[in-house]
Amino acid sequence: MKKRIAVLGSTGSIGTQTLEVVDAQKDIFEIEVLTANNNADLLIKQSLKYKPNSVVIANKEKYNYVSDALSNYPIKIYAGEESIAQIVQFDNIDIVLNALVGYSGLLPTIKAIEAGKNIALANKETLVVAGELINKLIKENKGSILPVDSEHSAIFQCLTGEINNPIEKIYITASGGPFREKDINFLKTATKKQALNHPNWDMGAKITIDSASMMNKGFEVIEAKWLFGLDIKQIDVVVHPQSIVHSIVQFEDGAMKAQMGLPDMKLPIQYALTYPERIKSNFPRFNFLDYPNLTFEKPDFNKFRNLAIAYEALEKGGNVACAINAANEIAVDAFLNDRIKFLDITSIIEKTIEKTYFIKNNSFKDYFETNSEAREIAKSLIK
Ligand code: MG
After folding, report:
1. 97-132 tens-digit pLDDT
2. Structural domain boundaries, residue 242
3. Among 316, 344, 369, residue at a domain's last position
4. Is residue 41 domain-shared with residue 99, that is, in the same domain?
């Protein structure tokens, strides 16, 4: 039987690459659900090609447009974010690939876990915002999370067959982004165009800015803590500009396992969809002679304050990371709309943490309220 997939965020970078993976493995996978935020035209095009059972357009104003375009086909059409959270629970879905951006990915993940689904998780913000709650829900339900983030997929792959062997430490690799070799003065005047120019990875706008500010790496530290049940002291970041070693696990005997390959998200996507099996692919292969030097550096926590902020958030616990994520979403959006400067992203995050009401043990409602509160605070700092 084919694996029936719901692709949340099918028109984004991870979503379209997921469909490329599916195209190459048509006898294994079947698309059951596609969801998009705003890009109705691409959603329609994808729907005509994959003939899913259902589609959701989050932007309700575009419902009629999508509905008219697909009226001759037996495809159910829904609108609104709440429909995404409902649709993941449908019986005809085996695996939910969550490639939503930001906080919006949280509720669909929770609903999918509650319905006992396997979730291929590309939306790291789910674990940044509510990792503690997510782990609790996984314990209570049958659902599981398979990481799609390349670093976490690497760690997950290194852990295969190591069930009784505790992790001593992990090293999350970071490309360092477009500003790795720039000084703090350069960052003060860095433009949107410069920040969007990532050296190794081709990704959506939000995560590309997060990579330039290293907020993305900070989020990945938090994500790793919850995915692999680690203490902060067990998580290190190492800058590796070539993005070939995707991350490393060190075991208690000192042995280190790394997963390597060209920077291509299709491999972690496919692994999450086929786990525990590996299936043949035509992805380009790594050639050592193209990369005679793989180099490693210490990350600069002074230049990239966001990385330090993420570690501090783990130290404090509670809803701090949720507040950081909310402030970051607002600040990145403002930066992309030329309303603030690059380093303002970090100062807005820091001020938002100070002003957000601290809650130690959080229910979903607490995270929901923290997210709203922190967004308002961040917005008030931009005006
Ligand atoms: Mg990553």
Report:
1. 999 999 999 999 999 999 999 999 999 999 999 999
2. 153-316
3. 316
4. yes
> Which tokens go with 297?
């550096």
Same-domain pairing of 119 and 232: no
CA of 73 to the centre of ligand 1 (A): 37
Residue that the structure tokens 């165009």 belong to: 193
What whole-number percentage of the chain has pLDDT above 70? 100
- Residues, the chain, total? 383
Neighbours of 328 (CB within 10 A): 30
Distance between Cα 132 and ligand 1 center (Å): 20
Burial code (b: 16+ CB inside 10 Å, e: under 16) for 218-240 equals bbbbbbbbbbbebeeebbebebb
Ligand 1 centre distance from Cα of residue 105 (Å):
16
Query: What's the pLDDT at 371?
Result: 98
Q: What is residue 200's predicted lDDT score, i.e. its pLDDT?
A: 86
Q: What's at 143, amino acid-wise?
A: G
- For ligand 1, the distance from its centroid to the CA atom of residue 229, given in whole angstroms, is 18
* Model confidence, pTM: 0.97
Q: What is the pLDDT of residues 209-259, one digit of tens each?
A: 999 999 999 999 999 999 999 999 999 999 999 999 999 999 999 999 999
Report the DSSP beta bridge partners of residue 212: none
